[in-house]
Fold each of these.
Amino acid sequence: MTQVSGQPRSTEEDGVPTGRQASTDHVGSDHVRVLRLRHVVSPEDHGSDHHLLLLPPGDHDLPATLDVLEAVSIQLAVLHRVARTTTGNERLRLPHQPARPVGTALARYWASAAAHARAAAALPGVEAGSIVRTTAEESLAAATIAAFELAPVDAGLTEAPLAVRRAVAFMEEHAGAPITITDVAAAAHMSVRGLQSAFRRALGSTPLEYLRSYRLRSAHADLVAADPSRGDSVAAIATRWGLMHAGRFSQRYRERFGESPMTTLHR
């Protein structure tokens, strides 16, 4: 991963522009900051010159130069409230390092929500705390949670049956191994058919769909954190997570994250 840094040309507080200059190397403990950047990209990125980078609370070492078009600060309290409303769980899975969106479609969705929040803040007579501002800010918070996958992986598991939670724990612990649906059902102490029905009722998916999604998310996280100069490779990371078919992995990865695994690795 290429490390980057810079000064934003404008900042935002609570999802609205302030126009002040601010350092991007420190983010307060009560909010996250999303930077909208401009730089040259490869054809695999579909020619877009706008990129997003989420900075979690804390100090960040960003040694290269960023062309920052905009910085948006979003209160953690708003993110927690929206997470609780949408998933039933207010916990957030904040990254430890600056993070990119999980796909180009979600990045565009976030940009649209930010533009809406900006427009709402600019309306004459609309004050902070008004229903217009609050709705726009919560929409931006929801877009941030979705675009950067801030909701916990187990957000939908709080009320799930014990057997489903056992199955999920088994799959996550053994995600890199060639496990089968029979293995998962045995770990959950259920029949295959019973487990599939329980999964659909609790999570709206099958056990193997959950496993595939977990493997893709895990591979994506490792690719984001990887460094090709240290010998990290797409093949090694895919193998680590049980994604043995290179072509199928690349196709599903691109469908999920909007770019190839190689593009993510070399960012």
Amino acid sequence: NVARCPIIHLKQLQNHETKENVDAGSGIIDFGALITLAKDADFVYEQEHFVGTSMDNVQKSLAYILSL
């Protein structure tokens, strides 16, 4: 119900043990399933740790999310 939860906060995790952030699409969270279930909601993506530059990671993660 989008009225109850209008914005979904997405954050990708590498694995269950370390819970370290990674680029969207390269971790254990199935963003495609979440976006399908909440297709009428808005989304916010957060990533705290980067390999390379933050801009490279933003571009990679955005490309993945837009492909869903």
Amino acid sequence: MAMERGEGRQEGEFIKLIKQVKKKIEKSIPEERCADMLEEDIAVIGKIYDIIKNSI
């Protein structure tokens, strides 16, 4: 049960990150600046950017 809660929390944090990145894309903020603002790895942000831009 504790493992499931931890996984759920991690999934929730990732969903929040995706929503934040989407808002940055809508404001035309570059990947590098977004990664810096959110204090995340540029590779992770880059993948999220690609997925969001391909789905628009």
